[in-house]
Write a structure and sequence with these properties.
Helix content: 40-55%
CATH architecture of the largest domain: 2-Layer Sandwich
Strand order of the largest sheet: 1-2-3-4
Radius of gyration: 23 Å
């Protein structure tokens, strides 16, 4: 279990108790109003990120290379969705840990991100093979198939 899931509610209860002890019910009202404002700010940010992401195809990003450069370990899935302005294409089964999502761009490059409990653990950039001098690269063959 995540320690943050325990510390935040305990901290809020302690803050309310300190407000009551210092200022009575008016202190509780002031701290309660501040907590509600904090929750509303987070809800508004979440809704604006989802609204922006709803206008794009799932798993699309403008540049996978730029996304790869901007990613850092420990950022939340919501932060990555805000950076890409698109929901990631799920690669892992639903409700499985770690969660794996993929964002790709128009050049067939893609970034595969692995999230453990909502935090980015690792990511990998995959780019298509580049042509040398305009000649097309031969298609990969499996063993046992004849050459054309």
């Amino acid at each position: 279990m995540n320690l943050r899931n325990i510390l935040v509610p305990v901290g809020l209860v302690l803050l309310m108790a300190a407000a009551y002890r210092s200022y009575g019910w008016s202190g509780v009202a002031a701290v309660g109003g501040g907590i509600v404002m904090w929750l509303l700010l987070h809800f508004t940010r979440f809704m604006s990120i989802i609204r922006k992401a709803s206008g794009r195809p799932i798993g699309y990003v403008g540049s996978a290379v730029m996304l790869n450069a901007r990613l850092r370990p420990g950022v939340t899935l919501m932060h990555v969705v805000a950076m890409t302005r698109a929901l990631g294409e799920p690669v892992s089964p639903k409700d499985a840990q770690p969660e794996v999502y993929r964002w790709s761009d128009g050049s067939k490059s893609y970034v595969t991100c692995e999230f453990l409990h909502g935090r980015l653990v690792k990511w990998e950039l995959s780019r298509p093979a580049q042509d040398d001098g305009g000649a097309s690269a031969p298609a990969p063959r499996s063993e046992g198939t004849p050459a054309p």
